[in-house]
Design goal:
The protein is an alpha+beta fold. It has 4 domains: 2-140, Beta Polymerase, domain 2 (2-Layer Sandwich), CATH 3.30.460; 148-233, Hydrophobic Seed Protein, CATH 1.10.110; 266-395, no CATH class; 401-485, no CATH class. The chain contains 23 helices and 14 strands. Bound molecules: adenosine-5'-triphosphate and magnesium ion (MG).
Length: 489
Amino acid sequence: MDSVKLTVPPEVVALCDALRAGGFEAYLVGGCVRDLLLLREPKDWDITTNAKPEQIQALFKETFYENEFGTVGVVTESEDPRLKVVEVTPYRIEGKYSNARHPDEVRFSDNIEDDLKRRDFTINAIAYEPVTGKLVDKHDGRRDIKRRVIATVRNPAERFNEDALRMLRAVRISAELDFAIESGTSAGIVANAKQLEKISRERVRDELIRILMSPRPMQALYVAQKLGILRYVIPELEEAIGIDQNQAHSFDVFEHLLRSLQHAADKGWSLEIRLAALLHDIGKPASRRWSEEKKDWTFHGHEVVGARMARKILNDLRISGEMTTTVVSLIRWHMFFSDPDEVTLSAVRRIITNVGTGHIKELLNLRICDRIGTGRPKEQPFRLRKYMSMVDEAMRDPISVAMLKIDGSRIIKLGQEAGPRIGWILHALLEEVLDDPKKNTEEYLESRARELMELDNEQLQTLGEQGKNRREEEDNAEVQKLREKHHVN
Ligand code: ATP
Ligand code: MG
């Protein structure tokens, strides 16, 4: 038996120690062992043991056990969220599968080797005993880690037939680790792809999200397409294959979507942006028309068709309502006119209203993905910065008498007749407040307004005009500062 030293947190070692002191075996297993061998940080720590659930519970102060797989959550004293609860599962032996989803029954075993045999991939089927350093690697997982391949434990077709989700897991794990899928395993996926139909959309969604959030979603979706499983995840994407675009584009719609998505991943952008990038032109195949006049393809209204299709796709994948709303609206408005030399501030305001102030930045990022996805080399940083500066300008509260802690109706209540004098008084007050913001209190402004009301028209108008000019200067200065912030001056 092999023995190696891997770095395991003391809380986990203590847990294994306690199981051993109780007379049981205890191994780390699955993703955490794989990640330790790869020198990656494990996402969570899974322990497997020959103790039964009740025996595990008896050994620890605080546990919970509320599932059908025998997994007991052991609560530790750790501050680290990944260590607060460590899952301990009895060795399991898989019963028969009759529905391509889950075993008909869960049976416990006394033998670690049974447990490793039921696991999906060789790299996920290595057990490690942290106390002694003993490794149990019956399926050559370490060899496959070295070769960087994903291969099923035992016969691929049988394993995919037991649980069809494993096919999507293979693609997901290959995207996360940058591993290839071994040829026999690939062939097993091709032969069993249709079984994915039987998997719940929630489980498909969880794997898809992990694919999208991985560093290599483009490659993963290409592989999924080649292996024939993409059509059971988002069938509409297959329709985009071979759909040529107009002369501005080098790629078909499918490749353009994947490249846009990949840029969002390269930038580390959110799931919302990644979904929007992946689906933003999904309406193009259905809206493509040949224009005799232009001698080119047109896609009028594809963003409207696409938004509707995206809503259906995301609903079908059980993506949350809130996220769906955001993604659909990003797709609906992704064609916004953005030439900063021609666009007006009010057009920018309209876009912000359409997509919502909280999402305008995402819309701009989606535009960046779209551009990069056409294969054009640059992000056009200057024009984009200029547009962003206009967005900031449109969202800013302008400097105006509305900032004052007094308004026209209050001044009328103080005894001033309605008329131009009200505006002059307000602007005179504004000038004082711009000089000294501390003066912006109801108390001060009321008493100062009373004094101004004593002035004759000529004197008051002069002060008022001064105030207006000052307002304009300050407002321009603010806009100027914004432009400097975006380096567009
Ligand atoms: P990560 O922790 O990065 O998500 P993981 O490999 O730990 O990766 P989990 O979903 O946490 O993935 O599963 C833990 C372990 O359980 C896997 O490493 C694998 O050994 C086993 N496993 C999970 N899902 C399946 C499945 N559908 N069929 C067989 N074994 C599985
Ligand atoms: Mg895990």
